[in-house]
Amino acid sequence: KQAEKAAHQKKEQSKTKCRKARRRHINLVAEFNRRQRKNIWLETHIWHAKRFHMVKKWGYCLGDSPTEKSYRACYRAMTKHCLLQDLSYYCCLELTGKENELLKQLARICSNDTGLTFEEACCLSGRFEGSLNLYRADRYPEDMLGPVTFIWKPRDGSENRQLWIWMHPALKQDILRELKAIFQCSEPEEIYIPEPVTTSMQEEKQMDVALSLGKKRKKEDKEGEKAVPVKKIIGDGTRDPFQSYSWISQATGIVISDRTMEILRYRLIGPLSHSVLTETLKAASLQTV
């Protein structure tokens, strides 16, 4: 029996391709796309996957704890140098419309008693980021939705403004539902049409090649791998790719857009954070027509 088992294993190994073939770019891309069908990867996923224990939460694959004892190094970077964290899994909702109308309705879901509001002068100018707790409309101090941070786009001379609200993915659905209710944004915006997520024949062939690599292979469903419906992953889980990402109010003209995973977000901690930014980012030259 042992001889038969060894011969069977040797026969399976002979069918698998060498490591060089498995690590080809076309095979890696197809394999990575297949593995992101249920849990989306951040752009820093490969770096974290080599150094962290990964967990699957809120539709993401996130680094939970380091595989090595790097706590002292992180603490040293926070106190003396600079430490960077990838917060791109946080969800972003964009509000666009008249400033007066935005402030009028947003005042219903926050309170001056808790601190800053969306009307704070330093935040309204777009120079600083603000943070506050949101509540259900006209329900303060009950029915708290959760903490958020927000950034106003600086004024450009028009009465229309843009506001970005950042929140934890566990709070996104409740806050999005409340914002759509207070602004009466129930109809999908006709201008914003998401690209349908389709899988071409070439991509399907690449996925089939990637699935055939290696000895370990997940059990397919009864109808095969192609029977799994293609979904677009937006951070907090899968959703129909033909569903709109933007909603508009016919009464006020306010537009709510879901910008999750469209805007990357990083947090720099440490005394040299400003120096790192100034050395990394270069101001673009102004072009006047």
TrEMBL record:
Parts of the chain that traverse the membrane: none
Top-rank taxon, per record: Eukaryota
Entry-linked Pfam families: POP1_N
InterPro entries per record: Pop1 (IPR039182), Pop1_N (IPR009723)
Coiled coil residues, start to end: none
One GO BP: tRNA 5'-leader removal
GO cellular component, one term: ribonuclease MRP complex
Pop1 N-terminal domain boundaries: 3-97
Record's protein name: POP1 protein
Organism of provenance: Pampusana beccarii (Western bronze ground-dove)
Gene: Pop1
